[in-house]
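Below is a filled-in request sheet from our internal design queue. Each sheet records the structural input a requester submitted and the sequence that came back. We keep these sheets so that new team members can see what a complete request looks like end to end.

REQUESTER: design group, bay 2
PRIORITY: normal
MODE: inverse folding
CHAIN LENGTH: 412
BACKBONE (tokenized):
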């Protein structure tokens, strides 16, 4: 009998706490304070800790350059700003993503154009991106949602053919791999969120921009710090362009350096647990893990399950409610489609104007709505479940058992 009907539930104990921060992070922060107290000098930003974190991050990515900033949103804003894209113009954005993965486009007076999802996934595919490219396209942003890499090779081939830079939004995918390559290392730049809910963190908020190109890296550094003339010849140069202060800090970096040392293990543990659940439910008839691109190694920021309600006597909400009664937390939908957001539909960016859509020189389709049927179908046919690196064999077993139990009860 299902627990929702009075039976015994599968999972009696709460799921384990994540415990992201521990004694090592505490000691790293205390050491920073102790040094400040000893010398009388306040710690700041762009100091020894921040530079060391940036070197460590670049090493984790296999070589290149990293810039620590103060959020995942500003990492994307900094990357876009460094490209110095011509205005007016369009930037292709993901079909399902956090608002911070799209808003920087509009804030730079570029028009966000939403590509639909590759069917069965939360990520855009090359076919869907190509469908929205125009003569006004300036760049492409590809997000790897839920720690699942997008199908990058066709996207990169398309972008190269059109002469468009690609920015990979890796906020939810630290350490994920596509055909052996780390996400964030394939496009012109990779952007990362390091807030406390992500795979590794630099505190409550943070972000990183990664680039392999030396010149592009310095353009990022300049744009993320009010256009300061970093790495430019000559003396007495003033700030070279208008921008914002988006700096990280030595305090954030001290936490991040400890976290980076654990990131490989964190990604491996999430992958191991997620893959075990995926394989453990492959015999079920109505429930399956969401379709993943072949040749990818997911790091599961959350679990994404497809539910075939045509085979069930319950709808998705009822199924998720029954899972909750069995002791498992789950969300009915992850419908974060940019073109459905109020700010996007009502063009609330610059006061009462409708910029960037209303820029006088913009010749694109000002009235495009981007319904994204594939993304809607994916959001409505999937439910999600939290996971983290401390899920062990018991948690994996309980999730499999609960999914099997609820499906069996509700099969037609």
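RETURNED SEQUENCE:
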């Amino acid at each position: 009998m299902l627990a929702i009907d009075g039976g015994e539930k599968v999972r009696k104990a709460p799921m384990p706490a994540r415990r992201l921060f521990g004694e090592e992070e505490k000691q790293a922060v205390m050491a920073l304070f102790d040094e400040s107290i000893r010398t009388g000098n306040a710690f700041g930003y762009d100091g020894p800790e921040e530079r060391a974190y940036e070197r460590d991050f670049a090493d984790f990515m296999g070589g290149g350059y990293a810039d620590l900033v103060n959020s995942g949103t500003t990492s994307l804003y900094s990357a876009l700003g460094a490209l110095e894209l011509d205005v007016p113009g369009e930037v292709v954005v993901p079909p399902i993503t956090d608002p911070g993965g799209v808003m920087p486009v509009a804030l730079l007076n570029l028009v966000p154009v939403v590509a639909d999802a590759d069917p069965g996934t939360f990520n855009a595919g090359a076919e869907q991106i190509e469908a929205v490219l125009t003569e006004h396209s300036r760049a492409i942003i590809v997000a790897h949602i839920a720690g699942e890499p997008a199908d990058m090779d066709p996207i990169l081939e398309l972008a190269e053919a059109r002469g468009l830079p690609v920015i990979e939004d890796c906020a939810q995918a630290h350490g994920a791999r596509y055909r052996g390559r780390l996400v964030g290392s394939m496009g012109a730049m990779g952007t990362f969120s390091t807030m406390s809910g992500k795979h590794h963190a630099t505190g409550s908020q943070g972000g990183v921009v990664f680039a392999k190109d030396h010149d592009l890296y310095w353009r990022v550094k300049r744009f993320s710090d009010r256009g300061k003339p970093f790495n430019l010849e000559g003396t007495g140069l003033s700030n070279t362009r208008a921008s914002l202060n988006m700096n990280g800090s030595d305090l954030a970096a001290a936490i991040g350096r400890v976290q980076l040392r654990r990131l490989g293990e964190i990604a491996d543990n999430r992958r191991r647990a997620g893959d075990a659940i995926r394989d453990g439910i492959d015999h079920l008839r109505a429930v399956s893990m969401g379709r993943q691109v072949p040749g990818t190694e997911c790091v599961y920021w959350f679990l994404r399950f497809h539910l075939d309600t045509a085979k069930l006597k319950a709808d998705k909400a009822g199924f998720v409610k029954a899972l909750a009664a069995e002791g498992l937390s789950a969300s009915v939908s992850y419908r974060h489609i940019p073109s459905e957001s109020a700010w996007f539909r009502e063009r609330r960016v610059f006061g009462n104007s409708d910029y960037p859509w209303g820029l006088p020189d913009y010749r694109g389709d000002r009235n495009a709505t981007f319904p994204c049927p594939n993304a809607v179908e994916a959001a409505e046919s999937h439910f999600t479940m939290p996971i983290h690196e401390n899920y062990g064999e018991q948690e994996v077993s309980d999730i499999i058992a609960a999914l099997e139990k609820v499906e069996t009860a509700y099969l037609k």
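SHEET NOTES:
- The mean pLDDT is 97.
- The longest strand covers residues 137-143.
FILED BY: M.R.
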